[in-house]
Specification:
The longest helix is centred in the C-terminal third of the chain and has 29 residues. The relative contact order is 0.06. This protein is about 60% helix and about 0% strand. It has 5 helices and no strands.
């Protein structure tokens, strides 16, 4: 079968070009390993490369999971670990593509004027409710704290 490639074992990726020299879009990029060619050429070396990438990605993801309840950028670190995995594994590339698509859709929805207006109204109502509750508390109990701590 002719894949359109001059190199042995390399599959050509068909891209729909419109006559411009734009960078390759994320959807057009081929899935699979991005290891250097000399590593892909040797099965044992490629397998050890994949194991190393998996272990490093796993360490980063575990660090991100630990950061979720602790102070730190937990989700950013988790997605960083997924990006490390995506350099070698197709499943991680697909998960990252799906995540990017969902984040982009959510950002577009958040920029919708109707949604922004609704969020501003709900935030304003929430702030008014909190201010009224704080006012009722201060009227009823004053500025005294509810616990009794004696000077020591």
């Amino acid at each position: 079968m002719n894949t359109g490639s001059n190199k042995h074992g390399e599959a050509a990726v068909a891209a729909d070009r419109t006559g411009t020299d734009e960078t390759v879009d994320e959807r057009e990029r081929a899935l699979g390993s991005r290891a250097p060619q000399f590593i892909k050429a040797r099965r044992a070396l490629h397998l050890s490369w994949q194991v190393g990438v998996f272990i490093v990605g796993l360490a980063v993801v575990v660090a991100g999971i630990i950061m979720l309840p602790l102070p730190g950028p937990g989700w950013v670190v988790i997605f960083g670990g997924m990006a490390i995995w995506a350099t070698e594994f197709v499943w991680a590339q697909l998960v990252l593509r799906w995540t990017k698509r969902k984040v982009t859709e959510a950002a577009q929805r958040a920029l919708d004027p109707k949604v922004r207006r609704r969020n501003i109204i709900l935030t304003s109502i929430g702030l008014v409710v909190v201010a009224v509750l704080a006012g009722i508390y201060l009227y009823k109990f004053g500025l005294v704290m509810p616990w009794k701590i004696k000077d020591q």
